[in-house]
Amino acid sequence: LCVPPCKRYITSGDTHSMCVVCLGAEHAMSALEGADCPHCELLPLRVLRSRKALFEEGAFSSVPQGAGPASAGAERALHSWGSQMDLLEGMETGDPLSSSLPGRSGACSEGSEARTAATSSQGTGSSLHLSSSEEGDLESAVEEPLPQSPQYEELLEVVTRAVQKLNIDWPAEEKAAPQKSKLDERFLRSKPPPPTRSLPFFPDLHTEISRSWGRPFSARLFVPASDYYSNVVGLDERAYKAMPRVEQTLASYLSPGVASSLKAPTLPSKPLRTTSALVGKGYAAAGQAGACLHTMSVLQAYQADLLKGLAEGEKVDLEELQRTADLALRVTKETARAVGRSMAAMVAAERHLWLTLSDMKEKDRVFLLDAPLQPSGLFGDAVDSVVSRYQEARKQAAAFQSLGGCWASSYREVQKLSVATRAPPSRDRGSRHSRPGSSKARPDLR
Q1: pTM
Q2: 77 CB contacts (<8 Å, ≥6 apart)?
Q3: Average pLDDT along the chain, 446 residues, taken 10 residues at a time
Q4: According to the UniProt record, where is the region Disordered (predicted)?
Q5: What is the DSSP letter of 237?
Q6: CATH number of 204-377
Q7: Is the peptide bond before 443 cis (omega within 30 degrees of 0)?
Q8: What is d(CA 92, CA 86) in angstroms, rounded to the nearest whole number?
Q9: How far apart are CA 428 and CA 444, in angstroms?
């Protein structure tokens, strides 16, 4: 149930302590704009859209009947951010919000919430089933695209000014014209989708990210410069530095011949161990980027507080603000490099998976694993190099084979010539069938 005096039921799976109506329309709209609500983050996107659509249709626009400050308090609570204290103080004497509301959507929402709560005592399975069906009903209530978010508009305005200041290339995107259909409406106006534009590509950041793309297989994982910003307290306990190891019991069950109680569990074959090492390398690099984000967040929050104090007229050290900005830029560089190392390790792992399908030499295998990362393909131009190597090797093998054939034929000719020029042995006529290598002569039987 919702907070008294409201008698509405809260949908199964919703961790809010208040129902949709008591949370208000602003809460439903802010949840889709990225507001920091831990309860809304657990809900699917279709549920958040459905909740916003219920308020847009006017199902909950009317305030429960009442007189005096109670009705005003209920109205404020209905359209507030969702403060529980304001709701309790403003609706102590008012009528419950679960009174009959006009409109189809209100009755549908109230009935669905009541059905969900009434059947929740029958078991977890039925409750989950009704919850999913309710989400489907709420999702079908809205099919129109969402209006453009104010946060997105503000982002575009600031980014536009930043692009002009930094002189960054931001080409306009060519959008295809919408295809007309004979099934389009003739008289009713349909809302067009909100215009969106891809944000600009920052070449300087890409330079930092792609630093390790030249040799993705042999690139160093730990760089001393990045350790200054990624050395954060508690990284080992929170699995930032390395991927968690497999449990000993599960390893003994999956691979009993390799698992040992004295050593850490390992995979049975070398290709599997190489793949695991590359994936672990990418995970560790991503953990370094996450650790750098902790340092960057502290600096940016501190910088925001300094700017806030400066705007409020407080005395702020300008040099401190400048140092904070430069340190944040340094952490941004190290974060980008760590992300690039993680991407390079993932590419090397994917290459290794494909190379395990061939019987290639180890030298060529390492050459392909360490080939520069290119967007055109997984192996890039290294494929042509390896193919040319194979063709050259085949030509050499064919040449050796032909030379070997010539040597064999010349050797046979020499043997024939030596036999032809050799004087025949002196033997009787009857001994022509004797073996040439035998030392004993057969007796004359005439």
Answers
A1: 0.57
A2: 22, 24, 83, 86, 87, 90, 91
A3: 79 82 83 79 81 70 41 43 40 39 41 41 41 44 54 89 94 80 78 76 95 92 85 94 89 78 82 94 95 96 94 90 95 96 96 88 88 91 80 77 63 63 62 53 57
A4: 90-149, 174-202, 418-446
A5: T
A6: 1.10.287.3160
A7: no
A8: 10
A9: 9
